[in-house]
Amino acid sequence: MHIRIEAETRRGLRIIGEIPSIPLCRIEGYNGIGKTNAIKLLRLCTGDQPFTGNDHSWRTFRNQLKSARVSVTDLHGAQKLEWALDPSRWPQVAEPLGDLIGEIRIDGRSARPRDITPLLSVHHVMAADTPVSVLSERLSTAQKRIQEWDAEVGRQRQEEVELALGDLQNKITDCAPSQLSRELTITSETEKIAISLANQLKLARERVERLDRAVEISAQLTQVRGRGPEMDEKIEELAAHLADLDQQRQKLDRQIKNASAQKHQNEKAENEFENAQKHLVRRDKALRTIQSHLQNLAAVVGVEPTEDALAAARRDTSQHLNRLLERQPRVNATPMLLSLISSLTFSLENAEGAEHLGNELLISSSQGGTDWTVTALREALQHREAVLREEAPSADAEQLTQEIEETRGRLGAIAQTEAALREVEAAQTALEKAEGRLLKATKGLPEQTARNLEDLMSNRARLDQEARAVQADHARLTHAREVLGGGKTEDALVAELVQLCREANVEVARLRKHREKEQAEFEELTRREAQAAQQATLAHRNSENRISRVTATARFLSQNHGLSWLRRAFPKISSLPGLNVADQAQALTEVASAIDKARDSLGSTYSSLRGMETALGRLESRIRQNSGETGTETASDRAAKRWLADEVRQWFESEVVRTALFNGGNNVELDPDSLQLSWTAADGQTNERPLAAFSSGEQAFAYTQAQVARLDRDDNAATNRLIALDEFGSFIDAKNMSALASYLRGRQAQAPHDQVLVVLPLEVSPAIASSNGTTNERVNALRQRGYFAEAFQL
After folding, report:
1. Which residues contact 280 (CB under 8 A, 6 or more apart)?
2. Stretch (H or E) spanning 567
3. Which of 99, 241, 447, 522 has a C-alpha 20 to 30 A away from that of 712?
4. What angle do CA 119, 122, 128 make, to 5 degrees?
5. Which parts form a coiled-coil structure per UniProt (predicted)?
């Protein structure tokens, strides 16, 4: 590559202007002409910061450089790289410049620093460093890189990965097969208990109904025995009276018919009278039928069959029904409230357990009221649940529903009675019209006949009225008698009572006491059955929710595009949707276990990394202070030492180096505590030598070769590299310099796009002249720009 630098400087800063396109180039020149500054400037251009840790030198360099233009040609992968540098924009602290470096162009197109990284890199190797200082610097650099990575990327990345894994684990936590199995078992057991209690309740209800019927029959039997005979006798008397009245009416009807058949003016009047008489009989019969129906209805509702009495009964019954309906939502709401409280309590318990949110504020009062934490709200809900369960909500609801139906039935019966009363009034009106029609028909008869008929009809009307009154009394008493004994005789009631007591396995004398006991047990069983049904419903809902969470989680893990990495790590996830829910839960448990191990590994890795940072710092401090005290070693301390020993081993990996420094020995190793080198000589003997005992030339040669070899092992190296070996003349003698030249020429074939620049102090004085043209070219270059450049060879 060919490099040109045009720099405008102030106060003595100098930078050489050209590095020719010589793969293995040697530059010699006067001190202070800017050879090293040119390398530092090129490192800045390629994204490095050569002044790291030395802010003072950085500010001096920055302030003395007014502007610069740098161009690099003869590259592999690009024709020309250009930089237009503006140091006024650079920061005061020595840090990588990034986009602040200035304007960058690649083959004439605008570019950014990240576009330079894969094309060109600059590496500066200083021969003046001793092995101890180099080791110290390497340890310090490694430590800083860990610190920087941890601060800029590592800690945030660890938190991101930890959160991602934690979210997945939380999602899977609710899908454990043990939880699923437990909830399915609870659901099955609660359903069994609910079914068993429902069956027991059914049998208990039948027993209570049988005992209620027995008590009712016993009461009816008592009434029949006390009032039955008297009522039967009265009913017989009324029936006999009605029969007598009917006979009298029939006699009057015959007399009226006979009277109407005598002495009439014409046949038409006779026919009219006969029709009117028949019509009156029909109306009277209809009125008597409707009156009997009215009396029965009035007896059922227990109200006098008058308009005012019925209106008052309807008003009172409607008000009572409204009161019952107002109670119904409160009574029926209790089971729903219990279900809601159970669901809320379950969620709060999960928040307390898995999420550790018990003391977190959940509800904050904005008006000075009570603030509720998760635990406080859960305890309040559980207390309310206990109170509600003691109220036997299902039994109350059943009793209320029955009372509402009975009240509605009574209200309907009152309405029917009112309708029957209106029918009676209409029938009475029709009867009165029929009587008027008959009276009018008598006008067509002879005068004496008409007077006789009027007398007969008056008597008949009196008998009709009396018959209707007797019939009403008979209907009321008959209905009362039917209600009294259920329409049954004393013998029939006794037989039914005995049968019911036999079925209930109870003596008649102990019937009421036994019925009270059964009723109490029935009410307790009703409460237990309601609770069991609620618990079964809640358990079923919980198990359904658990199944839903398992299947949803399986579907999410197997289909979410952002979790392809998880499916690659755990291929079984892809087949989750095809498994039954139990196998899905088992597979998810395995995934959760793998994630748990990954989280442990992640924490362990980052802990080890930070431990390595601390260990590198301790090791660097011991090497710099030449202290052999190590104290208690950690695993990170041992790893840091192995890393350092491997770094030194690589210094002496080359056969050229081992030949020059160890007479061809091998197995070169470093003890990081004592900085003692050991190797196996050609004769098989183990030799030892302190690292500091090597001459400066030997150290510089070994270090330089090791640094270049380390660059050769970089898999992510840029396509083009400038490797500058600086300050070698004062440290490497002719023998080692010749060996270094041989080594560098030998690696050219493996790195054809590297340019190696060997920077040496001036060895040829300008005053020396000879017939050698090369020397004259060197002299001319020195006179013109203070340095010369040529191929490096010895």
Report:
1. 431, 434, 435, 437, 438
2. helix 564-569
3. 99
4. 165
5. 132-159, 194-286, 397-473, 501-535
Tell me how many degrees the CA angle 138-143-144 measures, rounded to the nearest 5: 100
Rounded distance between C-alpha atoms, residue 611 and residue 673, angstroms: 19
Q: In what order do the strands lie in the sheet with 120-126?
A: 120-126, 720-726, 754-761, 24-29, 787-791
Neighbours of 367 (CB within 10 A): 4
DSSP β-bridge partners for residue 724: 124, 757
Q: What is the DSSP letter of 126?
A: E
pLDDT the model gives residue 225: 65
Alpha-carbon distance of 706 to 700, in angstroms, equals 10
Q: What is the average per-residue pLDDT within 77-100?
A: 92
- Using the Cα atoms of residue 401, residue 404, residue 409 and residue 412 in order, give the sign of their dihedral: negative
State the Cα–Cα distance between residues 310 and 425, nearest whole angstrom: 15
Contacts of 251 (CB under 8 A, 6+ apart): none
In the chain, the amino acid numbered 638 is: R
Q: How far apart are CA 141 and CA 498, in angstroms?
A: 107
Which of 668, 747, 661, 759 lies closest to 709, judged by CA? 747
Cα separation, 410 vs 276, whole angstroms:
41
Nearby residues of 719 by Cβ (< 8 Å), 6 or more positions away: 75, 76, 77, 118, 119, 120, 753
Q: How far, in whole angstroms, is CA 520 from its chain's centroid? A: 46
| Residue 70 pLDDT class (50, 70, 90 cuts) | very high
Residue 158: partners with Cβ closer than 8 Å, 6 or more residues away: 602, 606
Residue owning tokens 């059914």: 202
Q: What's at 118, amino acid-wise?
A: P
Q: Is the pLDDT of residue 8 over 80?
A: yes
Q: Are strands 24-29 and 754-761 parallel, antiparallel or unpaired?
A: parallel
360 residue type, one letter? E
Query: What is the pLDDT of the chain when averaged over all its residues?
Result: 80
What residues are paired with 5 via a beta bridge? 70
What residues have CB less than 8 Å from 470, skipping those under 6 apart? Answer: 238, 241, 242, 245
Residue 119 has a pLDDT of 94
Percent of the chain surpassing pLDDT 90: 13
Within 13 Å and on the Cβ side, how many CA atoms surround 751? 25
270 close to 256: Cβ distance less than 8 angstroms: no
The residues pairing with 251 across neighbouring beta strands, listed in sequence order, are: none
Record the tokens describing residue 617, joined without a space. 């710092």
Token digits of residue 616: 């590198």
Q: What's the confidence (pLDDT) of residue 770?
A: 44
The per-residue pLDDT for range 142-178, each reduced to its tens digit, is 888 888 788 878 788 888 888 888 888 777 877 777 7
Strands 120-126 and 720-726, bridge-based pairing: parallel
Strand partners, 722: 122, 755
Helix (H, G, I), strand (E, B) or coil at 41: helix
Distance CA 719, CA 286 (A): 123
Q: Please identify which residue in the block is written with the tokens 């690659």.
A: 568
